[in-house]
Specification:
It is a single chain. By secondary structure, the chain is an alpha+beta fold. It has 2 domains: 196 residues, Sandwich (Jelly Rolls); 153 residues, no CATH class. Helix content is 25%, strand content 22%. The chain has 11 helices and 19 strands. The strands form 4 sheets. Strands 5-4-6-7-16-9-14-3-19 form a 9-stranded antiparallel β-sheet. A 6-stranded antiparallel β-sheet has the order 11-12-8-15-10-13. A two-stranded antiparallel ribbon has the order 1-2. Strand 11 and strand 12 form a beta hairpin. Helix 5 runs antiparallel to helix 6. The longest helix is centred in the middle third of the chain and has 22 residues. The protein is globular, with a radius of gyration of 23 Å. It holds the Pfam family Cupin_8.
Length: 488
Amino acid sequence: MAAGSEATTPVILAAGAGGEEGEHVKPFTPEKAKEIIMSLQQPAIFCNMVFDWPARHWNAKYLSEVLHGKRIRFRMGMKSMSTVPQFETTCSYVEATLEEFLTWNCDQSSISGPFRDYDHSKFWAYADYKYFVSLFEDKTDIFQDVKWSDFGFPGRNGQESTLWIGSLGAHTPCHLDSYGCNLVFQVQGRKRWHLFPPEDTPFLYPTRIPYEESSVFSKINVVNPDLKRFPQFQKAQRHMVTLSPGQVLFLPRHWWHYVESIDPVTVSINSWIELEEDHLARVEEAITRMLVCALKTAENPQNTRAWLNPTEVEETSHAVNCCYLNAAVSAFFDRCRTSKVVEIQAPRTDGECMKKEELNVYSHMEVGQTGSQNLTTGTGKPEAASPFGPDLVPVAQRSEEPPSERGSIFGSDGKDFVDKDGEHFGKLHCAKRQQIMNSEKAIKEQIASNATTAPSQTFISTDDLLDCLVNPQVTRIVAQLLIQGRSL
Protein backbone atom coordinates (compact mmCIF):
# COMPACT_ATOMS: atom_id res chain seq x y z
CA MET A 1 0.00 0.00 0.00
CA ALA A 2 1.35 3.39 -0.92
CA ALA A 3 2.26 5.74 1.85
CA GLY A 4 -0.30 8.45 2.26
CA SER A 5 -3.24 6.15 1.49
CA GLU A 6 -4.75 7.11 4.82
CA ALA A 7 -4.53 10.81 4.01
CA THR A 8 -7.62 12.91 4.58
CA THR A 9 -7.37 14.64 1.22
CA PRO A 10 -10.66 16.22 0.12
CA VAL A 11 -12.57 14.36 -2.57
CA ILE A 12 -12.24 16.03 -5.98
CA LEU A 13 -14.53 15.45 -8.94
CA ALA A 14 -12.48 14.39 -11.92
CA ALA A 15 -13.01 12.66 -15.23
CA GLY A 16 -12.37 8.94 -15.11
CA ALA A 17 -10.52 6.88 -17.69
CA GLY A 18 -13.53 6.85 -19.97
CA GLY A 19 -14.27 10.53 -19.53
CA GLU A 20 -17.10 10.08 -17.02
CA GLU A 21 -17.29 12.16 -13.88
CA GLY A 22 -16.44 10.41 -10.65
CA GLU A 23 -14.79 10.75 -7.28
CA HIS A 24 -11.00 10.89 -7.41
CA VAL A 25 -8.80 11.31 -4.37
CA LYS A 26 -5.16 12.31 -4.68
CA PRO A 27 -2.93 9.61 -3.20
CA PHE A 28 -0.72 12.03 -1.23
CA THR A 29 -1.48 15.14 0.76
CA PRO A 30 0.77 18.12 -0.01
CA GLU A 31 2.55 17.55 3.30
CA LYS A 32 3.20 13.87 2.54
CA ALA A 33 4.33 14.61 -1.02
CA LYS A 34 6.85 17.16 0.22
CA GLU A 35 8.09 14.74 2.87
CA ILE A 36 8.73 12.17 0.14
CA ILE A 37 10.49 14.70 -2.09
CA MET A 38 12.75 15.90 0.71
CA SER A 39 13.73 12.40 1.84
CA LEU A 40 13.77 10.22 -1.28
CA GLN A 41 17.20 9.73 -2.84
CA GLN A 42 16.24 7.91 -6.02
CA PRO A 43 14.05 8.96 -8.96
CA ALA A 44 10.37 8.06 -8.82
CA ILE A 45 7.14 8.67 -10.72
CA PHE A 46 4.15 10.30 -9.02
CA CYS A 47 0.85 9.12 -10.49
CA ASN A 48 -2.67 10.54 -10.08
CA MET A 49 -1.46 13.85 -8.66
CA VAL A 50 -2.26 16.31 -11.47
CA PHE A 51 -5.56 15.12 -12.91
CA ASP A 52 -7.29 18.37 -11.89
CA TRP A 53 -4.57 20.76 -13.11
CA PRO A 54 -5.76 23.03 -15.95
CA ALA A 55 -2.28 22.59 -17.47
CA ARG A 56 -3.17 18.92 -18.01
CA HIS A 57 -4.69 20.07 -21.33
CA TRP A 58 -1.75 22.18 -22.51
CA ASN A 59 -0.97 20.36 -25.74
CA ALA A 60 1.06 22.13 -28.42
CA LYS A 61 -2.05 23.09 -30.40
CA TYR A 62 -3.62 24.77 -27.38
CA LEU A 63 -0.38 26.59 -26.55
CA SER A 64 -0.09 27.85 -30.12
CA GLU A 65 -3.50 29.50 -29.69
CA VAL A 66 -2.58 30.97 -26.31
CA LEU A 67 0.72 32.39 -27.58
CA HIS A 68 -1.06 33.69 -30.71
CA GLY A 69 1.86 34.16 -33.08
CA LYS A 70 4.55 34.80 -30.48
CA ARG A 71 7.95 33.82 -31.87
CA ILE A 72 10.09 31.55 -29.73
CA ARG A 73 13.52 30.03 -30.21
CA PHE A 74 13.86 26.42 -31.33
CA ARG A 75 17.08 24.43 -31.12
CA MET A 76 17.64 22.33 -34.26
CA GLY A 77 19.57 19.07 -34.06
CA MET A 78 20.33 16.10 -36.27
CA LYS A 79 18.49 12.79 -36.02
CA SER A 80 21.68 10.77 -35.88
CA MET A 81 23.33 8.16 -33.70
CA SER A 82 26.81 9.66 -33.46
CA THR A 83 28.96 8.77 -30.47
CA VAL A 84 29.58 12.50 -29.94
CA PRO A 85 26.99 14.41 -27.85
CA GLN A 86 25.03 17.14 -29.64
CA PHE A 87 25.81 20.01 -27.32
CA GLU A 88 23.87 23.24 -27.69
CA THR A 89 26.98 24.93 -29.11
CA THR A 90 26.84 22.61 -32.15
CA CYS A 91 23.12 23.10 -32.88
CA SER A 92 21.38 25.61 -35.13
CA TYR A 93 18.60 27.90 -33.93
CA VAL A 94 15.34 29.08 -35.46
CA GLU A 95 12.91 31.80 -34.36
CA ALA A 96 9.39 30.59 -35.14
CA THR A 97 5.83 30.40 -33.88
CA LEU A 98 4.29 27.22 -32.53
CA GLU A 99 1.96 27.20 -35.55
CA GLU A 100 4.98 27.12 -37.86
CA PHE A 101 6.55 24.37 -35.76
CA LEU A 102 3.40 22.24 -35.95
CA THR A 103 3.14 22.74 -39.71
CA TRP A 104 6.78 21.70 -40.19
CA ASN A 105 6.27 18.77 -37.84
CA CYS A 106 3.49 17.45 -40.12
CA ASP A 107 6.28 16.70 -42.63
CA GLN A 108 4.83 18.78 -45.45
CA SER A 109 7.21 18.64 -48.41
CA SER A 110 6.53 22.16 -49.73
CA ILE A 111 7.00 23.96 -46.44
CA SER A 112 8.19 27.55 -46.38
CA GLY A 113 9.10 29.82 -43.51
CA PRO A 114 11.76 29.54 -40.80
CA PHE A 115 12.01 25.72 -40.94
CA ARG A 116 12.39 25.53 -44.74
CA ASP A 117 16.10 24.62 -44.54
CA TYR A 118 15.51 21.71 -42.17
CA ASP A 119 14.35 18.38 -43.57
CA HIS A 120 11.89 17.00 -41.03
CA SER A 121 13.16 13.47 -41.64
CA LYS A 122 16.71 14.51 -40.70
CA PHE A 123 16.22 17.18 -38.02
CA TRP A 124 14.44 17.61 -34.72
CA ALA A 125 13.30 20.86 -33.11
CA TYR A 126 13.25 21.72 -29.42
CA ALA A 127 11.86 24.79 -27.66
CA ASP A 128 13.58 24.15 -24.35
CA TYR A 129 14.09 26.07 -21.11
CA LYS A 130 11.19 28.45 -21.84
CA TYR A 131 10.52 30.29 -18.59
CA PHE A 132 6.85 31.07 -18.02
CA VAL A 133 7.60 34.62 -16.86
CA SER A 134 9.10 35.42 -20.27
CA LEU A 135 6.85 33.26 -22.42
CA PHE A 136 3.56 34.38 -20.87
CA GLU A 137 4.64 37.85 -19.77
CA ASP A 138 1.30 39.40 -20.73
CA LYS A 139 -0.82 36.41 -19.63
CA THR A 140 0.21 35.93 -16.01
CA ASP A 141 -3.17 34.45 -15.04
CA ILE A 142 -2.08 31.29 -16.82
CA PHE A 143 0.51 30.69 -14.08
CA GLN A 144 -2.32 29.34 -11.91
CA ASP A 145 -2.85 26.41 -14.29
CA VAL A 146 0.22 24.76 -12.72
CA LYS A 147 -0.18 23.84 -9.05
CA TRP A 148 3.08 22.70 -7.49
CA SER A 149 1.38 23.49 -4.17
CA ASP A 150 -0.11 19.98 -4.45
CA PHE A 151 3.43 18.70 -3.83
CA GLY A 152 3.84 20.70 -0.64
CA PHE A 153 5.18 24.01 -1.96
CA PRO A 154 2.50 26.62 -1.16
CA GLY A 155 2.16 29.40 -3.69
CA ARG A 156 4.42 27.70 -6.21
CA ASN A 157 2.93 27.70 -9.69
CA GLY A 158 3.86 28.46 -13.29
CA GLN A 159 5.82 31.53 -12.24
CA GLU A 160 8.57 29.18 -11.04
CA SER A 161 8.30 26.81 -14.01
CA THR A 162 9.74 26.22 -17.47
CA LEU A 163 8.11 24.82 -20.60
CA TRP A 164 9.60 22.29 -23.06
CA ILE A 165 8.14 21.55 -26.51
CA GLY A 166 9.89 19.15 -28.87
CA SER A 167 9.56 16.91 -31.91
CA LEU A 168 10.56 13.27 -32.25
CA GLY A 169 14.25 12.88 -31.42
CA ALA A 170 14.64 16.19 -29.59
CA HIS A 171 16.86 15.71 -26.57
CA THR A 172 19.08 17.28 -23.97
CA PRO A 173 22.64 15.92 -23.65
CA CYS A 174 23.51 14.06 -20.48
CA HIS A 175 24.17 16.45 -17.58
CA LEU A 176 23.51 17.06 -13.91
CA ASP A 177 22.03 20.19 -12.35
CA SER A 178 24.13 21.85 -9.67
CA TYR A 179 21.15 23.32 -7.85
CA GLY A 180 18.04 21.80 -6.33
CA CYS A 181 15.94 18.79 -7.20
CA ASN A 182 13.51 18.59 -10.10
CA LEU A 183 9.80 17.93 -10.62
CA VAL A 184 8.79 17.25 -14.23
CA PHE A 185 5.15 17.10 -15.35
CA GLN A 186 4.60 15.35 -18.69
CA VAL A 187 1.71 16.98 -20.56
CA GLN A 188 1.77 15.64 -24.13
CA GLY A 189 3.63 12.75 -25.72
CA ARG A 190 6.27 10.64 -24.01
CA LYS A 191 9.87 11.23 -23.05
CA ARG A 192 12.46 8.63 -22.23
CA TRP A 193 14.80 9.47 -19.36
CA HIS A 194 18.24 7.87 -18.99
CA LEU A 195 19.36 8.46 -15.39
CA PHE A 196 22.58 7.83 -13.47
CA PRO A 197 23.13 8.27 -9.72
CA PRO A 198 25.51 10.91 -8.31
CA GLU A 199 28.10 8.33 -7.32
CA ASP A 200 28.55 7.49 -11.01
CA THR A 201 30.01 10.95 -11.69
CA PRO A 202 33.58 9.64 -12.32
CA PHE A 203 32.17 7.18 -14.89
CA LEU A 204 30.28 9.92 -16.79
CA TYR A 205 33.48 11.88 -17.61
CA PRO A 206 32.19 15.28 -16.42
CA THR A 207 33.11 18.49 -18.24
CA ARG A 208 32.23 22.18 -17.94
CA ILE A 209 32.80 22.87 -21.63
CA PRO A 210 30.47 24.07 -23.01
CA TYR A 211 30.11 26.31 -19.98
CA GLU A 212 26.70 26.98 -18.48
CA GLU A 213 26.13 27.96 -14.90
CA SER A 214 24.59 25.13 -12.89
CA SER A 215 25.03 22.43 -15.59
CA VAL A 216 27.77 19.79 -15.53
CA PHE A 217 27.81 17.96 -18.87
CA SER A 218 29.02 14.46 -19.70
CA LYS A 219 31.45 13.91 -22.57
CA ILE A 220 29.51 10.75 -23.44
CA ASN A 221 26.54 10.24 -25.71
CA VAL A 222 24.90 7.82 -23.31
CA VAL A 223 22.56 6.33 -25.94
CA ASN A 224 25.50 5.48 -28.21
CA PRO A 225 28.66 5.53 -26.07
CA ASP A 226 32.20 5.26 -27.37
CA LEU A 227 33.43 2.65 -24.91
CA LYS A 228 36.94 2.61 -26.35
CA ARG A 229 37.36 6.27 -25.50
CA PHE A 230 35.29 6.15 -22.29
CA PRO A 231 35.71 2.62 -20.88
CA GLN A 232 34.73 3.57 -17.31
CA PHE A 233 31.19 4.28 -18.52
CA GLN A 234 30.55 0.53 -18.48
CA LYS A 235 30.46 0.76 -14.68
CA ALA A 236 27.67 3.36 -14.64
CA GLN A 237 24.29 2.30 -13.24
CA ARG A 238 21.77 3.29 -15.90
CA HIS A 239 18.17 3.78 -14.80
CA MET A 240 15.50 4.24 -17.47
CA VAL A 241 11.90 5.36 -17.49
CA THR A 242 9.41 6.48 -20.11
CA LEU A 243 7.41 9.39 -18.73
CA SER A 244 3.82 9.48 -19.98
CA PRO A 245 1.20 12.25 -19.94
CA GLY A 246 -0.23 12.88 -16.49
CA GLN A 247 2.84 11.58 -14.68
CA VAL A 248 5.30 13.64 -12.64
CA LEU A 249 8.94 12.59 -12.36
CA PHE A 250 10.86 13.40 -9.20
CA LEU A 251 14.57 13.74 -9.94
CA PRO A 252 16.75 14.01 -6.81
CA ARG A 253 19.69 16.34 -6.46
CA HIS A 254 22.73 15.68 -8.67
CA TRP A 255 21.25 12.79 -10.66
CA TRP A 256 22.60 12.73 -14.21
CA HIS A 257 19.94 12.74 -16.92
CA TYR A 258 19.64 12.44 -20.70
CA VAL A 259 16.10 13.14 -21.94
CA GLU A 260 14.72 12.30 -25.39
CA SER A 261 11.32 12.82 -27.01
CA ILE A 262 9.95 9.56 -28.40
CA ASP A 263 6.63 10.84 -29.80
CA PRO A 264 5.96 13.29 -32.68
CA VAL A 265 5.20 16.14 -30.26
CA THR A 266 6.06 16.38 -26.58
CA VAL A 267 5.19 19.02 -24.00
CA SER A 268 6.64 19.09 -20.49
CA ILE A 269 6.58 21.49 -17.54
CA ASN A 270 9.19 21.43 -14.81
CA SER A 271 10.20 23.28 -11.68
CA TRP A 272 13.53 23.15 -9.87
CA ILE A 273 13.02 23.01 -6.10
CA GLU A 274 15.57 24.91 -4.01
CA LEU A 275 17.49 22.98 -1.34
CA GLU A 276 19.70 23.94 1.60
CA GLU A 277 22.68 22.43 -0.20
CA ASP A 278 22.34 25.10 -2.89
CA HIS A 279 24.07 27.68 -0.67
CA LEU A 280 27.35 25.76 -0.86
CA ALA A 281 26.72 24.84 -4.50
CA ARG A 282 26.60 28.55 -5.40
CA VAL A 283 30.11 28.96 -4.02
CA GLU A 284 31.25 26.01 -6.14
CA GLU A 285 29.58 27.46 -9.23
CA ALA A 286 31.21 30.86 -8.66
CA ILE A 287 34.61 29.14 -8.44
CA THR A 288 33.87 27.29 -11.68
CA ARG A 289 32.77 30.44 -13.50
CA MET A 290 35.92 32.31 -12.47
CA LEU A 291 38.28 29.55 -13.61
CA VAL A 292 36.52 28.73 -16.88
CA CYS A 293 36.17 32.36 -17.97
CA ALA A 294 39.75 33.22 -16.98
CA LEU A 295 41.38 30.36 -18.85
CA LYS A 296 39.14 30.27 -21.92
CA THR A 297 39.21 34.01 -22.57
CA ALA A 298 42.99 34.00 -22.15
CA GLU A 299 43.21 31.21 -24.71
CA ASN A 300 41.09 32.98 -27.34
CA PRO A 301 39.35 36.23 -26.36
CA GLN A 302 37.55 36.49 -29.71
CA ASN A 303 35.90 33.06 -29.80
CA THR A 304 33.61 32.77 -26.78
CA ARG A 305 30.83 31.09 -28.79
CA ALA A 306 32.95 27.94 -29.08
CA TRP A 307 32.89 27.28 -25.34
CA LEU A 308 30.05 29.39 -23.93
CA ASN A 309 26.64 27.72 -23.99
CA PRO A 310 23.98 29.73 -25.87
CA THR A 311 22.02 29.99 -22.61
CA GLU A 312 24.82 32.23 -21.29
CA VAL A 313 24.47 35.71 -22.78
CA GLU A 314 28.19 36.55 -22.67
CA GLU A 315 31.33 35.80 -20.71
CA THR A 316 31.76 37.89 -17.57
CA SER A 317 34.92 39.80 -16.69
CA HIS A 318 37.32 38.63 -14.02
CA ALA A 319 36.31 41.53 -11.79
CA VAL A 320 32.64 40.62 -12.08
CA ASN A 321 33.41 36.96 -11.40
CA CYS A 322 35.34 37.95 -8.26
CA CYS A 323 32.26 39.83 -7.09
CA TYR A 324 30.11 36.76 -7.76
CA LEU A 325 32.43 34.56 -5.71
CA ASN A 326 32.57 36.96 -2.77
CA ALA A 327 28.80 37.38 -2.85
CA ALA A 328 28.30 33.60 -2.84
CA VAL A 329 30.63 33.12 0.13
CA SER A 330 28.98 36.00 2.02
CA ALA A 331 25.53 34.57 1.32
CA PHE A 332 26.70 31.19 2.56
CA PHE A 333 27.82 32.66 5.89
CA ASP A 334 24.67 34.76 6.16
CA ARG A 335 22.68 31.56 5.85
CA CYS A 336 24.96 29.78 8.30
CA ARG A 337 24.40 32.41 10.96
CA THR A 338 20.68 31.65 10.98
CA SER A 339 21.21 27.91 11.35
CA LYS A 340 22.51 25.60 14.01
CA VAL A 341 26.17 24.84 14.73
CA VAL A 342 27.93 21.93 13.08
CA GLU A 343 31.56 21.09 12.48
CA ILE A 344 33.25 21.70 9.13
CA GLN A 345 36.28 19.50 8.64
CA ALA A 346 39.18 20.37 6.38
CA PRO A 347 39.52 17.84 3.54
CA ARG A 348 42.71 15.87 2.94
CA THR A 349 43.96 14.62 -0.38
CA ASP A 350 43.05 11.05 0.54
CA GLY A 351 39.38 11.96 0.82
CA GLU A 352 39.29 11.83 4.62
CA CYS A 353 38.99 14.79 6.96
CA MET A 354 41.60 16.20 9.33
CA LYS A 355 39.87 15.87 12.68
CA LYS A 356 42.15 18.41 14.36
CA GLU A 357 41.04 21.07 11.90
CA GLU A 358 37.41 21.03 12.98
CA LEU A 359 35.71 24.41 12.92
CA ASN A 360 32.37 25.56 14.26
CA VAL A 361 30.22 27.21 11.60
CA TYR A 362 26.53 28.00 11.81
CA SER A 363 25.02 25.60 9.34
CA HIS A 364 22.93 22.46 9.20
CA MET A 365 24.30 21.44 5.81
CA GLU A 366 26.63 18.46 5.68
CA VAL A 367 29.55 20.41 4.26
CA GLY A 368 32.13 18.49 6.25
CA GLN A 369 32.04 15.58 3.84
CA THR A 370 34.09 15.50 0.68
CA GLY A 371 33.87 14.52 -2.94
CA SER A 372 31.33 11.89 -3.81
CA GLN A 373 30.07 11.68 -0.25
CA ASN A 374 28.28 14.96 -0.76
CA LEU A 375 27.25 14.04 -4.27
CA THR A 376 25.43 10.93 -3.05
CA THR A 377 23.37 12.52 -0.29
CA GLY A 378 20.41 13.44 -2.49
CA THR A 379 18.53 16.05 -0.54
CA GLY A 380 20.67 15.33 2.52
CA LYS A 381 17.68 14.23 4.61
CA PRO A 382 17.22 10.92 6.45
CA GLU A 383 15.14 8.38 4.58
CA ALA A 384 11.80 7.16 5.89
CA ALA A 385 10.05 3.85 5.31
CA SER A 386 9.39 3.03 1.67
CA PRO A 387 6.55 5.12 0.22
CA PHE A 388 6.45 3.12 -3.02
CA GLY A 389 3.25 1.67 -4.41
CA PRO A 390 0.86 2.15 -7.34
CA ASP A 391 0.96 5.94 -7.02
CA LEU A 392 4.72 6.32 -6.49
CA VAL A 393 6.78 4.07 -8.73
CA PRO A 394 10.58 3.87 -8.41
CA VAL A 395 12.68 4.17 -11.54
CA ALA A 396 14.37 0.82 -12.00
CA GLN A 397 18.01 0.22 -12.87
CA ARG A 398 18.49 -1.34 -16.29
CA SER A 399 21.04 -4.03 -17.08
CA GLU A 400 23.31 -2.74 -19.83
CA GLU A 401 23.22 -4.16 -23.32
CA PRO A 402 25.68 -3.64 -26.17
CA PRO A 403 25.18 -0.27 -27.90
CA SER A 404 24.53 -2.01 -31.22
CA GLU A 405 21.58 -3.85 -29.68
CA ARG A 406 20.05 -0.84 -27.95
CA GLY A 407 17.09 0.42 -29.98
CA SER A 408 16.97 4.03 -31.07
CA ILE A 409 13.95 6.24 -30.54
CA PHE A 410 13.06 5.91 -34.20
CA GLY A 411 12.45 2.20 -33.81
CA SER A 412 10.97 2.34 -30.34
CA ASP A 413 7.91 0.36 -29.40
CA GLY A 414 7.22 2.88 -26.66
CA LYS A 415 7.74 0.33 -23.89
CA ASP A 416 7.36 1.90 -20.48
CA PHE A 417 10.50 1.22 -18.49
CA VAL A 418 8.87 1.81 -15.11
CA ASP A 419 8.98 -1.65 -13.61
CA LYS A 420 5.85 -2.12 -11.53
CA ASP A 421 6.72 -5.63 -10.45
CA GLY A 422 6.35 -5.97 -6.71
CA GLU A 423 9.71 -7.69 -6.47
CA HIS A 424 11.37 -4.53 -7.67
CA PHE A 425 9.86 -2.61 -4.80
CA GLY A 426 11.66 -4.88 -2.38
CA LYS A 427 14.98 -4.27 -4.13
CA LEU A 428 14.49 -0.54 -4.55
CA HIS A 429 13.39 0.59 -1.12
CA CYS A 430 14.93 3.85 0.02
CA ALA A 431 18.14 2.21 1.24
CA LYS A 432 21.22 3.99 -0.10
CA ARG A 433 22.94 2.45 -3.07
CA GLN A 434 26.17 0.61 -2.32
CA GLN A 435 29.17 2.35 -3.87
CA ILE A 436 31.02 0.43 -6.58
CA MET A 437 34.26 1.97 -5.42
CA ASN A 438 35.38 5.14 -3.73
CA SER A 439 35.72 8.16 -5.97
CA GLU A 440 39.47 8.48 -5.64
CA LYS A 441 39.98 4.97 -6.99
CA ALA A 442 37.49 5.61 -9.79
CA ILE A 443 39.30 8.75 -10.91
CA LYS A 444 42.65 6.92 -10.89
CA GLU A 445 41.19 4.16 -13.06
CA GLN A 446 39.70 6.75 -15.40
CA ILE A 447 43.08 8.43 -15.82
CA ALA A 448 44.79 5.08 -16.33
CA SER A 449 42.26 4.00 -18.94
CA ASN A 450 42.72 7.25 -20.84
CA ALA A 451 46.47 6.72 -20.85
CA THR A 452 46.20 3.16 -22.16
CA THR A 453 43.60 3.86 -24.84
CA ALA A 454 45.28 6.97 -26.23
CA PRO A 455 49.03 6.81 -25.47
CA SER A 456 49.89 9.19 -28.30
CA GLN A 457 47.64 11.99 -27.04
CA THR A 458 50.21 13.64 -24.78
CA PHE A 459 49.28 17.25 -25.56
CA ILE A 460 47.31 18.80 -22.71
CA SER A 461 44.78 21.39 -23.83
CA THR A 462 43.08 24.12 -21.83
CA ASP A 463 39.93 22.01 -21.77
CA ASP A 464 41.89 19.04 -20.40
CA LEU A 465 43.19 21.20 -17.58
CA LEU A 466 39.74 22.62 -16.87
CA ASP A 467 38.24 19.13 -16.70
CA CYS A 468 40.53 18.58 -13.71
CA LEU A 469 40.34 22.03 -12.11
CA VAL A 470 36.55 22.30 -12.20
CA ASN A 471 35.73 18.64 -11.65
CA PRO A 472 32.77 18.61 -9.21
CA GLN A 473 34.87 16.88 -6.56
CA VAL A 474 37.66 19.43 -6.86
CA THR A 475 35.41 22.49 -6.68
CA ARG A 476 33.74 21.00 -3.61
CA ILE A 477 37.12 20.79 -1.85
CA VAL A 478 38.10 24.30 -2.96
CA ALA A 479 34.79 25.69 -1.69
CA GLN A 480 35.33 23.99 1.66
CA LEU A 481 38.84 25.40 1.93
CA LEU A 482 37.60 28.90 1.11
CA ILE A 483 34.90 28.65 3.74
CA GLN A 484 37.29 27.16 6.27
CA GLY A 485 39.79 29.95 5.67
CA ARG A 486 37.14 32.61 6.29
CA SER A 487 36.05 30.84 9.49
CA LEU A 488 39.38 31.09 11.32
